[in-house]
């Protein structure tokens, strides 16, 4: 295959997977030349081939754009994607299990820090994209003008101006929010833990996605509860029909999900299925904890809806934070716990007493000055481009039999490797070469994801990153 044909095939696949949406401008000729390491002539031939296939169209003085027909084909094809979620539901009857993943996760995170490796396995966004200098300036100014704080000012629910700013952002995006429902927490992790503590007790069974973000499993493990995993589609989200069958046969105290840009699958659950999920749980009076930490990191034209949009009974406990989109160092999160607000506020007071005031006020001041949306537009553009690059490079360097998710937001890619590959062995072999990955076993209580890994594409794409991914592909090929 000629080089320009390979480039055209990669771009066609990216459109098919929904990386580029209808009407969206693809990389300029010069950008594509630089990122793929090919000549401008090669890119022009590839783009001409894409035009002939009807994938893109050129617009004078503007560049190349995805044609609507190509985008519709991409959406249709997405329905036929492999599950990327371990064994089919029919092969494994769901069973509630004790949770013990914290040691594996902790050792993995420690190795990333200790080895100063290429952070493909990092769970964190690239901090260089955050306006932390500006926020620190606000914090320093606040500290100078207020030498001491009254502890009463720190008590739950939190800083009134920050609460108002959060409520305003939801209102601007079509989510009706009562500011009185918002409780400021130490990141989304505390919001999730408090919410789970408010709705369930030790020994209870909690339904989670499979695979699921390990912070959800940590919360269940910490509180001595049991998890039951529900098959989850890489485009549609949790299998609502399977969940209904579980509810019919077992006692479920709560459900925990990430409907938007789920970690690790990256999907955006369709609105119709969000409504269906909320209605199912409401019919059985089962609370649902919604982890929406990636809500601002969408690749589409508008911020997606939340489960909270469809909540009429106050059973949705919505949790979010600024850690993934603005600053991780201040750990400012919040909960909107619906009918459980009083319990969550009490638990917040009993567990950590307060959330420090200076970070709250600093973030509120930053939101008031109006630069947040501009910052987010830049971050989304970077992540969307880097998701496309990493997807293309995995396809290029990894062996036949490798499958990938198609992230609609966020900054992680879920990769299914050939079945003979053990991701823990791969993790060790990669670490010895200065590369980290997120082994699939961290995302489940079961053994279904031994041949899966999670990759982080938030960091700048460099020659070192590309070399690391090539080395990783070679390791996978040997193990396969």
UniProtKB/TrEMBL annotation:
Pfam families named among the record's database cross-references: Aminotran_1_2, GntR
Gene3D superfamilies in the record: Aspartate Aminotransferase, domain 1 (3.90.1150.10), Type I PLP-dependent aspartate aminotransferase-like (Major domain) (3.40.640.10), Winged helix-like DNA-binding domain superfamily/Winged helix DNA-binding domain (1.10.10.10)
Record-level Gene Ontology MF annotations: DNA binding
InterPro entries registered for this protein in UniProt: Aminotransferase_I/II_large, HTH_trans_reg/aminotransferase, PyrdxlP-dep_Trfase, PyrdxlP-dep_Trfase_major, PyrdxlP-dep_Trfase_small, Tscrpt_reg_HTH_GntR, WH-like_DNA-bd_sf, WH_DNA-bd_sf
The keyword DNA-binding is assigned to this record: yes
Parts forming coiled coils: none
Positions of the HTH gntR-type domain: 1-69
Family, per entry: In the C-terminal section; belongs to the class-I pyridoxal-phosphate-dependent aminotransferase family.
UniProt protein name: DNA-binding transcriptional MocR family regulator
Lineage: Bacteria, Pseudomonadati, Pseudomonadota, Betaproteobacteria, Burkholderiales
């Amino acid at each position: 295959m000629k080089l320009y044909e390979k480039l055209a095939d990669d771009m066609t696949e990216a459109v098919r997977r929904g990386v580029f949406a209808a009407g969206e401008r693809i990389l300029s000729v010069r950008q594509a030349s630089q990122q793929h390491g090919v000549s401008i002539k090669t890119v022009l031939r590839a783009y001409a081939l894409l035009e002939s296939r009807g994938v893109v169209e050129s617009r004078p003085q503007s560049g190349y754009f995805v044609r609507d027909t190509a985008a519709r084909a991409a959406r249709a094809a997405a329905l036929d994607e492999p599950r990327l979620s371990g064994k089919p539901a029919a092969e494994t009857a769901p069973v509630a299990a004790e949770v013990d993943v914290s040691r594996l996760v902790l050792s993995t995170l420690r190795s990333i820090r200790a080895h100063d490796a290429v952070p493909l396995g990092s769970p964190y966004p690239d901090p260089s994209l955050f306006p932390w200098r500006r926020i620190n300036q606000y914090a320093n100014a606040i500290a100078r003008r207020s030498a001491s704080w009254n502890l009463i000012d720190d008590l739950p629910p939190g800083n009134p101006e920050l609460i108002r700013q959060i409520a305003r952002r939801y209102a601007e995006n079509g989510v009706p929010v009562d500011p009185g429902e918002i409780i400021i927490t130490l990141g989304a992790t505390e919001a999730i833990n408090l919410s789970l503590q408010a709705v369930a007790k030790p020994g209870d069974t909690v339904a989670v996605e499979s695979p699921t973000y390990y912070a959800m499993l940590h919360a269940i493990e910490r509180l001595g509860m049991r998890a039951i995993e529900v098959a989850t589609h890489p485009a549609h989200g949790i299998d609502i029909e399977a969940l209904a069958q579980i509810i019919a046969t077992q006692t479920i105290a709560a459900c925990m999900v990430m409907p938007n840009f789920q970690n690790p699958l990256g999907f955006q659950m369709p609105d119709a299925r969000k409504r269906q999920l909320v209605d199912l749980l409401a019919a059985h009076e089962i609370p649902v904890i919604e982890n929406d930490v990636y809500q601002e990191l969408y690749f589409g034209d508008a911020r997606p809806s939340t489960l909270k949009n469809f909540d009429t009974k106050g059973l949705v406990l919505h949790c979010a934070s600024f850690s993934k989109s603005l600053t991780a160092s201040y750990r400012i999160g919040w909960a909107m716990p619906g009918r459980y607000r009083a319990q969550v506020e009490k638990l917040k007071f009993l567990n950590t007493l307060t959330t420090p005031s200076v970070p709250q006020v600093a973030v509120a001041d930053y939101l008031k000055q109006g630069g947040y949306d501009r910052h987010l537009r830049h971050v989304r553009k970077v992540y969307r481009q880097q998701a496309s690059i990493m997807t293309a490079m995995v396809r290029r360097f990894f062996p036949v039999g490798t499958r990938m998710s198609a992230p609609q937001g966020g900054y992680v890619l879920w990769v299914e490797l050939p079945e003979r590959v053990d991701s823990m062995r791969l993790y060790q072999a990669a670490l010895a070469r200065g590369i980290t990955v997120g082994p699939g076993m961290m995302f489940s209580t079961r053994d279904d994801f031994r041949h899966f890994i999670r990759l982080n594409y938030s960091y700048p794409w460099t020659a070192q990153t590309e070399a690391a991914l090539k080395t990783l592909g070679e390791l996978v090929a040997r193990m396969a």
